[in-house]
Design the sequence.
């Protein structure tokens, strides 16, 4: 078989480990693998390179993606995808492994409907793919966020300040929930919890009057202007307040062993599935077991926020 592999959407730590696993597993089966540069953009432009074992040496511990990634909104148009199909046909590539998030999955599904064998691997820091307990990159981003919040806690405690920290996650609150819980944040706001600003302000005022030296508020991106919120907290609660947007540092860095392990398992599994003639599915790990799910189903699955973890946040604050 001649298999293409690409990374698409936001890069995530562990994507390289997944590329390595795909390449090595396929070569072990006697298949050929072609790296596609810059996601669907490179696919449309026919930028393929045949990979050998050594092309993926020493990338296991590197963040980012050696293939490069891109966002190509035009890929939702059939005429644009037709160009990609032509490029694949021209190079006799019959199958494609697409490493990315929900958008990447939508592209992979569309290609499957156009006759290309596709498999999706969940690579995003957001953990917003419900067909896998974890996505590749989430563990590393969580580590980075926890490290940053711990540091911010040192300074806000020393200065008796309130610290508002915005973490990534697009529309998924997992990064905020897990990092807030792991760092003992007093308040965690995500798309799932919403933000009751009045309650927060009142609570913070009471806490300050009760003598609590600092407060940590972790909030998902896209919820509010955190700099404005910090001003309101300062005006109302009496705490000095600073806002920090963690931003893109969360996307980089050496992948954790958890992300490398997940990437290795999912990369190997994706190649096995192609060998069995499967297409239009994505791979994941659920309850520590490898699972495949039709992409269509995966895209319609709702990310159910952990009630247990949200309740715990309330109990432990
Ligand atoms: N509905 C769609 N149909 C076809 N391709 C899509 C669709 N949605 C997204 N894509 C492709 O997938 C790419 C990555 O999606 P994006 O949402 O940016 O990141 P992620 O895959 O990490 O969620 C997009 O830039 C686009 O090329
Ligand atoms: O890199 P961009 O285009 O600024 O996008 C930022 C978005 O990418 C992410 O870092 C990762 O999201 P995707 O995996 O969907 O690309 C989100 O957390 C964030 O909302
Ligand atoms: Mg996404």
Sequence:
């Amino acid at each position: 078989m001649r298999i293409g592999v690409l990374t698409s959407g936001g890069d995530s730590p562990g994507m390289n480990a997944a590329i390595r696993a795909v390449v090595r597993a396929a070569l072990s089966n006697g298949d050929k693998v072609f790296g596609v540069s810059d996601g669907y953009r490179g696919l449309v432009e026919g930028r393929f390179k045949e990979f050998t074992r050594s092309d993926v040496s020493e990338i296991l511990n590197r963040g980012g993606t050696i293939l490069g990634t891109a966002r190509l909104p035009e890929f939702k148009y059939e005429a644009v995808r037709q160009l990609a199909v032509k490029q694949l046909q021209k190079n006799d590539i019959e199958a494609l492994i697409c490493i990315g998030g929900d958008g990447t999955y939508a592209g992979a599904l569309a290609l499957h409907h156009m006759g290309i064998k596709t498999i999706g691997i969940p690579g995003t820091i957001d953990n917003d793919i419900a067909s896998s307990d974890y996505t590749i990159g989430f563990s590393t981003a969580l580590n980075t966020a926890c490290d940053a919040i711990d540091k911010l806690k040192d300074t806000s405690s020393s200065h008796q300040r309130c610290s508002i920290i915005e973490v990534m996650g697009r529309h998924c609150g997992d990064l905020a929930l897990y990092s807030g819980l792991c760092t003992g944040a007093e308040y965690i706001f995500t798309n799932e919890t919403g933000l009751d600003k009045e309650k927060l302000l009142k609570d913070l005022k009471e806490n300050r009057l009760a003598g609590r030296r600092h407060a940590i508020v972790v909030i998902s991106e896209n919820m509010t202007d955190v700099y404005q919120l910090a001003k309101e907290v300062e005006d109302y609660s009496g705490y000095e307040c600073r806002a920090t947007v963690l931003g893109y540092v969360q996307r980089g860095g050496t992948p954790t062993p958890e992300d490398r392990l997940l990437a290795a398992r999912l990369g190997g599994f994706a190649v096995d599935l192609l060998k069995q003639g499967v297409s239009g599915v994505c791979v994941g790990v659920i309850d520590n077991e490898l699972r495949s799910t039709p992409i269509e189903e995966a895209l319609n699955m709702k990310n159910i926020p952990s009630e247990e973890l949200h309740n715990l946040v309330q109990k432990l604050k």
